[in-house]
Amino acid sequence: xxxxxxxxIGEEVRAALGAGEAVVALESTIISHGMxxxxxxxxxxxxxxxxxxxxxxxxxxxxxxxxFRVGLEKEQIEQLGSAAYVLKASRxxxxxxxxxxxxxxxxxxxxxxxxxxxxxxxxxxxxxxGVHRGGAESMDVSADLPELxxxxxxxxxxxxxxxxxxxxxxxxLETLGVPVITFGSDRxxxxxxxxSGLPSPAWLETPGQIAAALHAHWQMPGAGGALIANPIPxxxxxxxxxxxxxxxxxxxxxxxxxxxxxxxxxxxxxRIVELTGGESLRANIALVKNNAALAAQIAVALGG
Length: 304
Ligand code: PSU
Ligand code: MN
Description:
The chain has a single domain, classed as 3-Layer(aba) Sandwich (Indigoidine synthase fold). The chain has 13 helices and 13 strands. The two termini are 15 Å apart. Strands 1, 2, 3, 4, 5, 6, 7, 8, 9, 12 and 13 form an 11-stranded mixed beta sheet that branches. The site of pseudouridine-5'-monophosphate has 18 residues, from helix 2 and helix 12.
């Protein structure tokens, strides 16, 4: 369980893994770059509690002091949520982050890597990255997608935000051989709303069925990850018309300001919160908790 000096597993997580109990990984970019302070810290701690309430141990992951830290203390979560500078670390940033000791938040891709190093198979977040709108021209495709193709961790999300090109994101996942399974619906969800206008590539009704599908998927040689899409609860969902105009405006502003690379997603996320006067943040927090509960239930069904 020890991977040299590059992996530090928190005490509670180490004990749970050692006992073969269910553990759910949680990412840190959502804390540092995905939500404003102080709601980011409150949410991260509340999400850990949801995992516990559903019978699993939470393992929030970041890169700190030159190591993947799997299972953060409350003070470390507060630091990630309030520090003046936190590196947003995707796969390409891992070597630099580890060798320099900079404080780095892990994206979905990098949290999958940390989870896999520690032997954790379930991971809950809000939304993953994907193919950006205009991605066929800009080639802006999140490193989360190839990671899903190669690293055997199941990511529970509320689908993907329509800041992205959802049809092309699903095409890309198909090419990479990533199962996309929606929980309890035959429609692929679009983060704030339960409907993206697209059918889900697969759908199952219970956490136990999803655990069985994952177990079978991972029998394949070279099997990578899986995307489990969990529609936002009905009473928390936003009207498509309400959010679509805001997203279009945020995407246009990013283009006008020539924002590129890893800055694009954090810019869009914070503009959407500003433009909805915090309404989108409320929905975002609700869906992350909903995903944490499902991930814990699947982890329990998988048997640790
Ligand atoms: N989408 C969200 N909230 C988030 C992110 C994406 O709705 O917080 C974060 C995740 O950490 C994800 C990352 O892995 O943004 C993707 O960034 P990029 O598009 O630069 O790959
Ligand atoms: Mn990108």
